[in-house]
Amino acid sequence: MDHAMEEEGMHYEGACIRPPSEAGSILLQVTLGCSHNKCTFCVTYKDKRFTIKDEDIILKDILFASKYMKQQDRVFLMDGDALIIPQKRLLWILDKIREHLPWVRRVGAYANAKSIRMKSPEELVELREKGLGILYLGVETGDEEFLKRICKGASSQHLIDMGRKVREAGIKLSVTVLLGIAGREGSLRHARATGALLSAMDPNYVGALTVMLIPGTPLHEAFEEGRFELPSQKELLLELREMVASTNLTRGLFFSNHASNYLPIRARLPKGRQRALDEIDSALRGEVGLRPEWMRAL
Question: What does pTM read for this prediction?
Answer without folding.
Answer: 0.91
